[in-house]
User: Fold these one by one.
Assistant:
Number 1:
Amino acid sequence: MRIFRRQALPGFGLTLGLVLSYLTLIVLLPLAALVLKSASIGPHEFWAAATSPRALAAYRVTFGSAALAGLVNLVFGTLLAWVLVRYRFPGRGFIDALVDLPFALPTAVAGITLTALYAGNGPLGRWIEAAGYKVAYTPNGIVVALVFVSLPFIVRSVQPVLESLEADVEEAAATLGAGRLTILAKVILPALWPAILAGFALAFARSIGEYGSVIFIAGNMPMVSEIAPLLIVAKLDQRDYAGAAAIAVVILAVSFAVLLAINLVQLWLVRRRSAKAVR
Amino acid sequence: MKRGVARPPALRDPWWLALPLILVALAFAALFLLLPLVAVFGYAFEKGWDVFVTAIGDPDAREAIRLTVQVAAISVPANLVFGIAAAWLVTRFEFRGKGLLVSLIDLPFAVSPVIAGLVYVLLFGLHGWLGEWLAERDIHVIFALPGIVLATVFVTFPIVARELIPLMQAQGDEEEQAARTLGASGFTMFWRVTLPKIGWGLLYGVILCNARAMGEFGAVSVVSGHIRGLTNTMPLHVEILYNEYQSTAAFAVAALLALLALVTLVLKHAIGWRIARTTSDESSTEARP
């Protein structure tokens, strides 16, 4: 029962004004300046700058590594979330806390540490190179850095969904004689897909913009292991502002498109599931 | 929180399924999370405590630490005020375009840090839209403190709001309504009712925002110009030392940043536990007849 008559709380005008002006000044105007800059050179030059061979190679490296790292985390991040939610073992709380490390650890610190670990004389790199592979200073290193950076996105996206999954559906399936693996594949995984997809998209969007952790380990060879954000920096150093802006617009457009797409897919999945439940 | 719910025996995984899964997950976590964390400190103290102290005490390193603290001291309070205002606006009022506003608040998370730096160079740089106007008045934004602060604010923009919005949504506005009915002014209501209610969530938002502000690399790297002892923050100093093959010194400064990250993680878990406990206390009292 509500005791108090509802009334408007104060501060609407104040907070709306503050939020809108801060948002406009810090975020919207600067982003508009970027779009304007890339538009100021005309469509032909924009196209030439955005699709030069070096830029295309950088997109390939960036999007390819981001997708690969996302897939690695899709498997292992989901597994980690599952193990953390469903099983009890010593050190569980510690690992759970550690999942946030990539959010909190500065990217440059992650970058130099991963490089030292995976370089030919590092503790991991020594073994890897003895086996005939190379990670540091190759495109593989980019994937390793991106796996580290984007791991929390998938774990933290899947974990709450797993926690809130009702036991009765599983129970019903078990009562009806379904084996544990069947339940995993037919009951639990379908319920997790929206969260896994959302986590993957967030991880991918974060990965294509990542800079600090990648540049130390990548080797940064143009056409081979140069990521798009680094190419933006290279263009800036050459004072090619319009060229930098053109590549930035492409990267931004892809990030936004991925996040928009995942919102739509999630909406669709949720609607389909609730439609099924009604039926 | 639903953690630790006892499951019926039929739903408990057999050990031959659980054990391999736990081992694979632990191996993955050890390789990608634990090993890098241990390695930062391992490399920092490789040559002993004295070398570590000398590296931290170096004038350039001290200047980098000072600048980093200064940048965080400006950008964190700015984002704190914005975060509280945004959370209050979004959770206490209904208005058209709210969904769009929430998406716009999250926008900086979808922007590459390098692009966050680039937009300010395009605005305030010598060849930028306002470059000439600023140069005539001898105002330095890019390659100076204001540019570093702006880039940091941009990158850490949504953090406090993101922590507060779900918390304030869950808490509802009954107590604020009560305070108003009892005649409290807007300020008193905020200071005596809202702030104590959101305290722990706010504290965590501020801590996370601070850690990210002090550790930001990409955005700051683009606007700073890497002037040693002048516009060099701690993460940029790590890069310089590393590229000069002063690996131990680089890891010494990196270890300070990693320590900050560790403190952030510990506080997050302590605070998360506290919030969970207070909200479950509230719900249990509410459940009483």
Number 2:
Amino acid sequence: MKIVFRIWVVLGFCFLALPLLAIIPLSFTSGQYMYYTPEMLALDPAGYSTKWYTAVLTSPDWLMAVKNSLLIGLGAAAVATICGTLAAIGLSWAGTPAKGLWTMLILLPQIVPIVVIAGGLFAAFGDLRLIGTYTGIIIAHTVLAAPVAVITIRASMDRFDWNLVAAASTLGANPLYTFRTVTLPLVRPAIIAGAIFAFATSLDEVVVIQFIGAYQQKTIPIQMLIGLREHLSPAILAVATMLIGFALVVILLGETLRRRSLAIETPKK
Amino acid sequence: MTATNETTPGGTRRRIRPKRATLVGLALIAPLALVIVLFLILPLVRFVSLSVDNRETAQWLSHTAAALSDWHGEGLPADDAYAAIARDIRENSDSTSKLAARLNFFEGGMISLMRHTAAQLDTIPPTRAGFVAFHKDWGDPETWRAIYLVSQPLLSEHYLNALDLRADNPTEPLSIEKQPERQQIFQRLWLRTIMVALVVITLCTLIGYPLAFYLSQAQGFAFILGMGTVLLPFWTPLLARITSWQVLLESTGIIPTALAASGLIEGRVPQLFDNLFATIVVMTYVLLPFAVLPTYAVMNRVSPSLYRAALTLGASPVRAFFQVYLPQTLPGVVAGCVLIFVFSWGFYLTPELVGGPGGSLIGNQIAYHFSSSLNWGLAAALSGLLLFTIAAAALVLRVLAPRQG
């Protein structure tokens, strides 16, 4: 029984990890195609090269996609994190009425199918003249990324000890000063984690951009989509490998910060 | 602006009146709530309402609608209806092509009929005999069925079409019959979408539950490695994950090549990509973390002592698992299943890229009717049905697990 469980668990982890690990060596191929050549399997150095990474990093198409992803991701993450931090504080504030309703409203962008959201935004943005604009995409990504920021920051706020705020105000600090010197430093790791996760959410998004974006706004995933449909080359594997690296950074930074913020504020009871 | 004492949860309310605390709380939530209402709720309401709201098209057929008010939906209408549609086409000549496109959603061939009729309108006598003599389709009751539907400000036909149904008599919306055989596509797709969701839920639970259990027991490096393995695909952008699976599964890809080389399979290696199999495998892969993480969170809070007590009291490990541990961890499993159902229900990009025609789902039809066939009413009706089902699933979750955040 135990051995069956062990094997099942190992297979489960392999299912999660192997598809990603399989493309990493392949991205270093010296060939033109997306499969392992005999030279690669024989570990012949001639089978490997970094030429596809050079190709990506010198391609105007990919550099434009990176620039757009950064611009849109940073813009959306900034707005989502600011609004999300305020909302997360509001949701843990004792005086707020109908918290369940607000939580549901804020989580809605995660629940509604993305293709339905894309349809709705395309119809609405047509009237607002936001189709094919950075503003439109940043607004859309703010809506999509905000729930992620709120969930992350709220988890930390729920463990926040409001007695500290009460103590500060008893000592004469005004609310803004209290926020700046007491609340913010304690919640800051969660806010940074929320911002990182919000950025990652924007970087991942492709369906809405496909509907409301123009060619000039193409991001990394859109450029990958073009690659998958048109000229399949190992360059796309190099990009995918770099995105796996990006995910690793998100996990190391984001999850560490999130865990730290949860650990610090746990009230001692 | 000095006191916020009342914010202590359950604490004393000394200096600030509760009313002001309410306002502060609402003001904090307001910016995000406003963004979501303006740029999600309102666009969605407007989009989904396109499934029934036909006022724009109806205004181009105002005279026809009046002339058809005493038509009972059977046979051909009287001469005045032909005169009225001639007048509507003449008065709204700018919109004829749009009108024709919308008529065509309900009756094939209407685009060409309307184009020819509009071009020759001055030569056609505005009577039934004149129109039928000009083109035989004007003598087809199906033509008038479509015109009647599109002349009404409210439309239920898109919802019926989304379920492969149609109104037999357009003047009686409840006279529902099945679409002709060759036009039936949606019932099969709804069934396929439900089937895929159930299979993916089952696979994710079967793979995810043991993984979550392992994570809840693991410590140190084993935990970090295990958790990292669950989180890495979770945070890797979807397009990168789909690329990986394409490289693995497509006919020249790693798995078919390896299968052929290994000699495990005689003859041709079966197709693994661009079909339903690929849709199910990749969806399971994408949604697996949503089975593992909620279950892990619940398992982390469940003390193993009850399970051990059951063992001490003589229960077999299997019985102790099914009667003690599984019920304790069930809320996590249910939460995971509902999440996976809600996500898989609206999947679009994954089936689009790995599923081919045989592996496409309702979400793909929404995108198709939205951006290719431009039948926004039908896309909106399909979206409305998706949202309705998701709302029902959310309600089920609330009833089953009312204390889950």
